[in-house]
Amino acid sequence: MSSPAFNLDSLCQQFGVPGASLAIWSQNKLEETASGVVNLNTTVPATPDTLFQIGSITKLYVAAMCLQLVEEGKLTLDDPVRRWLPDFRLADEDVAARLTLRHLLTHQSGMEGDFFLDVGRGEDRIEKFVAMLGELPQVHPLGAMFSYCNTGFVIAGRLIEVADGRRWDKAIRNRMAKPLDTPAFSTLPEQAIRHLTAIGHLGAPGSLVVTPLAYLAQSNAPAGSMSMACARDVVTFARMLMGDGIAPNGTRLLSPESVAAMQEINVTCPQRMNIDAIGLATFLWDWDGDGQPETFGHDGSTIGQAAWLRYHPASGTAMALLTNGGNGKGMAQVLLDDIFSARTGVTPTRPPEPTPHYSFDAARYIGRYCNVMESIKVTAEDSGLVATITPAPASAVIAGERRVTLAPVNDELFVGVTPGYSERATYHFLPNDAGTEIGYLHSGVRAHKRVE
After folding, report:
1. 35, 56, 258, 443: which is the annotated catalytic residue?
2. Is 56 one of the catalytic residues?
3. Could you write out the three-class secondary structure of the chain?
4. 202-229 pLDDT per residue, tens
5. Other CB atoms within 10 A of residue 78 CB
6. How much is the pTM?
7. I want to staple 16 with a disulfide (CB 3.0 to 4.6 A). Which of 65, 92, 195, 326 is the partner?
8. Among 232-236, 366-370, 435-439, which is the least confidently predicted range?
9. Phi-psi category of residue 375: left, alpha or beta, with phi > 0 → left and psi -120 to 50 → alpha
10. Interaxial angle between packed helices 58-71 and 231-242, expressed in degrees from 0 to 180 and rounded to the nearest 10
11. Alpha-carbon distances, residue 387 vs 111, 240, 371, 417 (angstroms)
């Protein structure tokens, strides 16, 4: 192992990140480094052994476990989930009856995706959570589009429990952590306490504070609320995928066909979004522009922590960056550009630039767009369109209200920079279900339904 040729200390200072850990697998060699502190109050230094919350990178583990169970004949991708969960309910009975595991793993269920309900810490917490979804409404019709859905992955986690016969924490430890030989990978605080562990920080760079809540609800664990790992553990998982399902220690976790299935296009994202397409849980990127994705991975965020995984099988390159606050997204973009441009021959695409002097009818876009996580009010001001994003009470601890000025790229796509960040985010105004007018605002990889 060696340290990569990056000054992570300088990047942490530049982007106001309290602590970070970086691992790179390239040219059959592991490079890793860490910088900063695990906690601004204690000032304990971060090391490559530090556990950070990996958030929704957990969803790749969920997809892999589901495919293991498909290979074993215990699950299928395209049968209704009621085959295994006969009492499954949603507000829309037709959706509940037709929903499949593929819908869940590709974020096409249409159900409210950020339903974070704390039902306690018992081993039956995921079962209890799924049993309480009977009134959960739809944001869009089943299969109509991609909209990021944490709720769906909790349901997938429950399917794993039923098919595997073990509760979530034991299932992921025995199906993933142990075979990968990543014993530090943890899904419970009592597991993580054996290791140096990072805490999240909230606020803008320069005024960060330690989060008052260490974790999201444990009932959302399969969506990524609890998983903790060091960066090399995440890279080890990526190496298994780049190895056609064989872990670095020689253990086969998946068939080559299952790995390929994770990386096949199931749904195409809105054009020029920060993700090109979705496989089975996997984010897909076509950075070389040939029409086929060649780079894969996932992002993750929890309360004050954020993580990035990218892997490029053709060159055997993988990168995991774990952070605990500040503008980690800006840091990640710099590292992605440097690492993948130099080592793979492909350069990550950047968010689109606004089109100068582009003329648009502001009245078409004005309105309020909502999902269970937040409300986005779009207004017209002298500067153009402005999106005022107001979190729901349950989400307010993660981010407060913010105003983002939107600049047009074309009639569908606008971009804006969120205060405290450096990278442009995309805002897609998409047609309603009838195709007659704007019905959705797609931002933050989520659909927000127009309500006024």
Report:
1. 56
2. yes
3. CECCCCCHHHHHHHHCCCEEEEEEEECCEEEEEEEEECCCCCCCECCCCCEEECHHHHHHHHHHHHHHHHHCCCCCCCCEHHHCCCCCCCCCHHHHHHCEHHHHHCCCCCECCCCCCCCCCCCCHHHHHHHCCCCCCECCCCCCCCCCCHHHHHHHHHHHHHHHCCCHHHHHHHHHHHHHCCCCCECCHHHHCCCCECCCEECCCCCCEECCCCCCCHHHHHHCCCCEECHHHHHHHHHHHHCCCECCCCCECCCHHHHHHHCCCCEECCCCCCCCEECCCCEEECCCCCCCCCEEEEEEECCCCEEEEEEECCCCEEEEEEECCCCHHHHHHHHHHHHHHHHHCCCCCCCCCCCCCCCCCHHHCCEEEECCCEEEEEEEECCEEEEEEEECHHHCCCCCCEEEEEEECCCCEEEEECCCCCCEEEEEEEECCCCCCEEEEEECCEEEEECC
4. 998 889 999 999 999 999 999 999 999 9
5. 8
6. 0.96
7. 326
8. 435-439
9. beta
10. 40
11. 24, 41, 15, 11
Q: In the structure encoding, which two tokens stand for residue 188, read together?
A: 């419970």
Output the six-digit token pair for 127. 């079962």
Q: Which two tokens stand for residue 367?
A: 């309105």
For residues 421 and 76, the model is more confident at 76
Q: Which amino acid is at 222?
A: P
